[in-house]
Amino acid sequence: MAERLSEVTLRRLLEIISGMAAPLILAQISQTLMGLVDAMMVGRLGEQALAAVAVSTLLFSGVAMSIKSVDVAVQTFTARRIGQGRDAEVGAVLATAVTVTMGVGTFFMLVGLLWPGALMKLVSGDAQVRQLGAQYLFIRYCGILPLILFFQLKGMFDGIGWTGIGMAVGVAMNLLNALLNWVFIFGKLGSPALGVAGAALASTLSVAVAALAILLVAWRAKVRKRFHLVCRSNFRRDLVAPFLKIAWPPAAQTLGIVLGFLILYTILGRISVLAVAAGNVVMRIAAVSFMPGVGVGAAVQTLVSQSLGRGDARGARRVSWGGVGLSVVVMGFCGVFFVVAPAWIMRLFSEQAELVTAGVPLLRLLGLVQVLDAVGLTLSGALRGAGATREVMLVDVGCGLLLMPPLAYVFGITLGGGLLGAWVGLVVWFTLYALLLIMLFTRIRWQEIDI
After folding, report:
1. pLDDT at position 276, please?
2. Which of 11, 33, 205, 274 has its CA 20 to 30 A from that of 44?
3. 418: left (phi over 0), alpha (psi -120 to 50) or beta
4. Is the pLDDT of residue 2 over 70?
5. Could you give the 3-state DSSP secondary structure of residue 38?
6. In 272-312, which ranges are continuous DSSP H helix?
7. Nearest one of 53, 18, 70, 47 to 295, comparing CA atoms
8. What percent of the chain has pLDDT over 70?
9. Helix orientation angle between 237-271 and 418-443, rounded to the nearest 10 degrees
């Protein structure tokens, strides 16, 4: 993408954004669908199995996604160098990121393999939920390193602007995961029925195959040589500090949000196992609806960084607001669907009438704030592309960890609102997050951040 975004027509601007965002949205949806397919199939095993997967997935994601968040720096640094015409430095960006993340990932992999039961005791008081969750955790931690590698390579390709690569590999990964879920959870094609452990095994194997596939793409001669991906001097100590300056806020943001959700699930656990199961299903569904905003935000992140690399600050601002418009349209449609057909959606995940009934009002509430979610998710991508990752982190962690859990406890437990009362905390979080990011985007001088 060599055009100056400040000079193109609005139609061309939207074409550029949508062209880059479409593969990213599909890739994000395919990634999220892995968890959604797990929920759909595990939901057939009962409330406790569903609750175990919900809590153990959060424990795994809290670590894996925090480490993986270095891909924000990979994408931003890569895009800035592409915009400046410094293609040969992309290999150093990737090698430095992979070295740092693999080292940290190895440590946490050992923790997860040695003490999965102890980790589950921290977040669940139900013996069966702890047992099933420990099985799930152990198997998922076996695959944490391929997961980290996959996301660093995807971050590089997204920063270059080749978003279709991550999409293709992500979709294939999701299809493989669905097939392996069917085989391992229910015992098909000669496999024993492994239940919750089967869901973990399917996800782990799917991620390993995806990591190998995207690595083979990066190894192709025209890619490897253009970006100097294989070079003894690629690990750059001088990149570590600026890298961590950009990467630690997204990592802290991910960890803070996961911690917030763990507290939320602990609160829901005090209400009932049904509340945990219903909350998990609704959040899995909501996660898919967030993906257009996340995908457009990722595209805007790359385009903002490339534009700033070319000295086109006005183009960076234009592409940010153009991305907001696209996200609002798509996510607004999802919101309407949540409001008018929540029961039909819930029945896709469970045949239990009580669980469906509990989830319907939660989906309706989320539907009402979809447009605000779209604005927040897109502007967070724009600010990350400029390098303002710390500001985005402070807003998200402040709302999602410091505000949401206390509100959920007050409305759900203290005032006796139950599951629906606890959900008020999430709605307040999503609303305030969007409003604060609008204020940040319009008031801070993000165009002048040097990375």
Report:
1. 82
2. 205
3. left
4. no
5. helix
6. 273-309
7. 18
8. 98
9. 150
DSSP letters for 419-430: HHHHHHHHHHHH
Is the distance from CB of 215 to CB of 71 less than 8 angstroms?
no
303: nearest Cα among 9, 18, 10, 11: 18
Please check the confidence at residue 451 and state whether its pLDDT lies above 70.
no
Predicted confidence (pLDDT) at residue 234 exceeds the cutoff of 50: yes
Helix orientation angle between 47-68 and 237-271, rounded to the nearest 10 degrees = 160
Torsion, CA 259, CA 263, CA 269, CA 270, rounded to 10: 170
CA dist 388 and 386 (Å) reads 6
Q: Which stretches of 310-388 are DSSP H helices? A: 313-340, 342-346, 353-368, 370-386
Which pLDDT value is given to residue 34? 67
In angstroms, the Cα distances linking 325 to 19, 48, 296, 437 are: 15, 41, 10, 15
What's the distance, CA 102 to chain centroid?
A: 19
Residue 1, pLDDT score: 47
Residue whose entry in the numeric block shows the structure tokens 């008081």: 125
- pTM of structure: 0.74
> Tokens at residue 203, please?
């996800």
Q: Cα 448 from chain centroid? A: 27
Q: How far apart are CA 97 and CA 45, in angstroms?
A: 39
- 319 has a pLDDT exceeding 60: yes
* Whole-angstrom distance, CA of residue 316 vs CA of residue 322: 10
* pLDDT surpassing 90 at residue 42: no
Main-chain phi, psi angles of 421, to 5 degrees: -65, -40
HSE at residue 39, side-chain half, CA atoms within 13 A, is: 28
The answer on pLDDT for 426 being more than 80 is yes
Q: pLDDT tens, 351-388?
A: 788 888 988 999 999 999 999 999 999 999 999 888 88
Residue 15 backbone zone (phi > 0: left; psi -120 to 50: alpha; other: beta): alpha
CA atoms within 13 A on the CB side of 102: 11
Structure tokens belonging to residue 449? 């951040």
- Domain locations along the chain: 10-448
